Amino acid sequence: MKIETRYKSRMPSFPFQSRFYLPVGEKFWLSHGLALTWMVFSIILSVPWIKDLGEVVTIPVAIVLIAGIAYLPGYLNAFMVVSLLFDRQPAFKTLDPKEPLSILIACWNEEKTIAETLMQLAKQDYAGQMRIYVIDNNSTDQTAEVSKRAGKELGLDLHVLTEKTPGKHHALNKALSYVDTKYVITIDADTLLHPQAVRRLVSRMESAPKEVCAVAGAVLVRNSRDNWLARLQEWDYFLGIASIKRLQGLYQGTLVAQGAYSLYLTDVINKVGGWPDAIGEDIVLTWAFLEQNYKVFFEPTAIAFTEVPTNFRHFARQRSRWARGMIEALKRVKPWEQPRIFTRYLTGSNLVMPFLDVVYTVAWIPGLVLSFFGIYWIVGAHTLLVLPLALLSNYLLYRYQKAVFQELGLRIRKNRIGFIFFVLCYQMIMSPVSVWGYIQEFLQRQRVWK
User: Fold this and answer.
1) Would you call 253 helix, strand, or coil by DSSP?
2) How large is the greatest C-alpha to C-alpha distance in the chain, in angstroms?
3) Domain residue ranges of the chain, discontinuous segments joined by +
4) How many CA atoms lie within 13 A of 113 on its CB side?
5) Successive 10-residue mean pLDDT values, the chain, 450 residues
6) Residue 204: what are its φ and ψ, rounded to 5°?
7) Which CATH superfamily is domain 101-315 in?
8) Is residue 19 helix, strand or coil?
């Protein structure tokens, strides 16, 4: 995806938005009502499938399987579709913020990528002071030296810190002790920011209510041309992850202010004790904010491009780590302990994810094989009750993302084959990988940052 520096002072005009305003609470309950209606319709429609499958595995087992394959995914997808139709990104109150801020980049053997990351920081159109901390977390290469040299050549206010104890949370907390600005941004060492990214992220924070303590940026794929796996992930970031972020942002409870690119209030991070000792430190940190009755927003026009794994082993390790991070967050902060009903629902939805992933892995994938032999016990229900909603949500997000890209002077890369395989095959990869992550967390296997 091509990065340009065209500047615009207005917010993008998103499709499907009307001038009729509904409060967030009314959107929430109306979306649930329509999603429940869809699920009841699905249950009535699926009775023949239940009976056919019940003759093989018993009726109770058939109900459990179809619930995990069609009813619950259909409910969640219907809730998302209706919520996206209601979504209306509020306008910025300020477009030219100048508040000083600190940027933290935790590094472990990043000598090949850190210079380009710093170069994109030097191109930011942000008018305020940016103090950059590169934290060398026990690297064995020339990360520190390359960072110092690049910072000097680019004229950045850059400081290189050293943290010998392995672990991303150790690196970030080391830098946090040096931060004296109101805002702090974290980015990954292989993440490239759009030239307007910092300005837009800070603009969203300064336009937000006082209860907002963090804003997650939009992270997209920079290396999608590398191979088939990267092409699949391009659509996952562009449509899948972005749709979830927009849904959560609408209800003021973005569940992950991801470390790859997010902004936080420094004093609130200190209040909750800094980044936790967790494999999903950004997930657990965000849930700690929500537990304290803070809100977390998402800004779709503050775009960063990250490098995704192109080796399946690395991809599986990353996504299983994300699954483990979700379980860590659920164990540390129970959904029913969340003070706001929106975040109770959003975090509580994750309670059913292991069940859905297990059922998809052990039932839907074998059911797909059976469908090639004319046996549609499983795939028929899924195709009829879930796939249309998934396609609709992808269409809505594509329209939203197209408006964002036009605003930022970007173009959407053509990747039709990747999209087809993303819709048809991606979940068949993701669910087994997630199940492996759940098993790792249950067995308390060793944590690996990368």
Assistant:
1) strand
2) 72
3) 24-88+346-442, 101-315
4) 19
5) 41 53 91 95 87 90 91 94 90 94 96 96 97 95 95 97 93 96 97 97 96 97 92 94 94 94 98 93 94 96 95 94 92 92 95 95 90 80 76 90 92 87 90 95 74
6) -65, -40
7) Spore Coat Polysaccharide Biosynthesis Protein SpsA; Chain A (3.90.550.10)
8) coil
